[in-house]
Amino acid sequence: MADIKTFHLPDLGEGLPDATIVEWHVKEGDYIKLDAPLCSMETAKAVVDVPSPYTGTVQKLYGAPGDIIETGAALADFAPDPNAKQRAEAEATGHHHGPKKSVGSPAPDNAAKVVASDEGGEVEAKGEREDEGTVVGAMVSGNTVHVEQVSSAGGVKAVPAVRALAKKLKVDLTRVRPTGADGVVTLQDVKTAAANGSAPLGAAPARAVPASAGRHLAPELPEPGAAPSRTAVSLAGKPVRTAPPSVQASGQPEQLKGVRRNMARVMAEAHANVVPTTLVDDADLHGWIGKQDITARLIRAIVAACKAVPALNAWFDGKNLTRTLHPHVDIGIAVDTEDGLFVPALRNADVLDGAGVRAAIKRLRAQVEDRSIPASELSGYTISLSNFGMFAGRYATPVVVPPTVAIIGAGKLCHDVVAVMGGIEVHRRMPISLTFDHRAATGGEAARFLKALLDDLSLPN
Question: Cα(178)–Cα(103) distance, rounded to whole angstroms?
Fold first, then answer.
């Protein structure tokens, strides 16, 4: 009997505990060569092709497209070809070939951990890995498989990675011919449609969707029965609730995946481990001369405040009660997308001029939108900025994500009546919220930081 080898999902180099199967490139019984594409997995940032660790026959595939596989869980079984050259077990493969070690178990002193990179290649790291840089942090892993539903928004059944690729390639998913099981649109379907131009956005009305195609994969809830007749007032003549108690909210639960899944974990971790305190005030922009780049001015003001009060441009280790003050300023810029929250780092903001800031932010946003941003750009920032005022809202309590100590929130610009000597004036002002970890910084330090930021924003140019 052939020696069966089990391949476990490797850490894809992002510090994330799981990934979602997007598409298998083989089926059980297929013969596959070493390093040939085995499957595509969606992580919190990108779709990664996982290569085969063996040359041989695929015996078993664990999971189907849409399933979440946790890091270290079995992904596929192989019967290696005894006549083909195989990579040595100890040789760097870009993967771990066994279940991950249990929490707390020591690693061998001479062990070299090898993990797959975002591009599918290999990155070797000696000893324990630091936080590899996730969307909003790093969490621990498990080893179970979760079966979840394929999203059927718009009458098209597809996983989020397929929808992201269709958006990038400007393909109308409603006009793509699905080849996946149960009418699911696959990555290859989108690539084919983009190549032959059969489904461009806006070219023609979307195809009609059969009634069966729009059905959810989960069992449907029964239709609520007819509501009993009720009156709007009671016998005493007082208003009463007219909705029958039997009416319930409809809808189906779905597993969070990728970016949103990681965001949920990290936000919960931050809530549990940070002592947040928020200060708010308004930056008076009445003195500005001419048209100016608001985001660039915000970045410059944050840099000025970090230089004035370094205590907030820092990392804090709550377990060991240590603080690291940073001489440079790398600002995490919160970017909101349909898939969830990304926080790319604007490196060396303290040495960039306005044009440099704008060019760097434009590059980061473009990489976030097409999911090409490398893991190194999503970690290591020293302080954060959330410019939520681009949409709505004046003040907020932004979330501080460890190990950072502070985050600045910029609200929506407004025109306020301001008292001045001898009367009143209307000034343009920007609401500013500063949330900081009170374990690492005092209220006085935070107030002085906020004042330095407001003072810089009030300058004419």
Answer: 42
Other beta carbons within 10 Å of 67: 17
Q: CATH classification of 153-196 is 1.10.3720.10, yes or no?
A: no
- Of 452, 194, 144, 182, the C-alpha closest to 303 is 452
235 CB-contact burial (10 Å; exposed 0-12 / middle 13-18 / buried 19+): exposed
Owner of token pair 């002193």 = 109
User: What pLDDT, on the 0 to 100 scale, is given for residue 278?
Assistant: 97
CA 251, 252, 257, 263 torsion-angle sign: positive
CB 41 within 8 A of CB 59: no
Whole-angstrom Cα distance, residue 220 to residue 366?
Answer: 39
68, 39 contact by CB (below 8 A): no
Q: How far is residue 234's CA from residue 31's CA, in Å, rounded to a whole number?
A: 74
Q: CB neighbours (10 Å) of residue 447? A: 14
Best CATH choice for the domain 5-146 from the list 2.40.50.100, 1.25.40.10, 1.10.357.10, 3.30.70.100: 2.40.50.100
Whole-model pTM: value is 0.59
- List the structure tokens of 269: 């971790």
- Tokens 């006085």 belong to 444
Pick the CATH number of 275-457 from 3.30.530.20, 3.40.50.720, 3.30.559.10, 3.40.50.2300: 3.30.559.10
Task: Give the chain's radius of gyration (CA, Å).
Answer: 27
DSSP 8-state class, residue 65: T
Distance CA 310, CA 405 (A): 11
- Please list the residues that pair with 74 across neighbouring strands: 8
Q: How far apart are CA 190 and CA 239, in angstroms?
A: 55
Residue 290: DSSP 8-state? S
Count of alpha carbons within 13 Å of 137, Cβ hemisphere only? 21
Tokens of 430: 């920007």
Q: Which residues contact 421 (CB under 8 A, 6 or more apart)?
A: none
Q: Is 36:57 a contact under the CB 8 Å cutoff? A: no
Q: Which two tokens stand for residue 428?
A: 């343009």
What span, in angstroms and rounded, lies between the C-alpha atoms of 266 and 272? Answer: 10
Nearest Cα to 11, choosing from 108, 138, 152, 169? 138
DSSP, collapsed to helix, strand or coil, labels residue 22 as strand
Instruction: Please list the ranges in the chain whose pLDDT falls under 50.
Output: 90, 92-149, 206, 208-217
The burial of 133, by beta-carbon neighbours within 10 Å (0-12 exposed, 13-18 middle, 19 or more buried), is given as buried
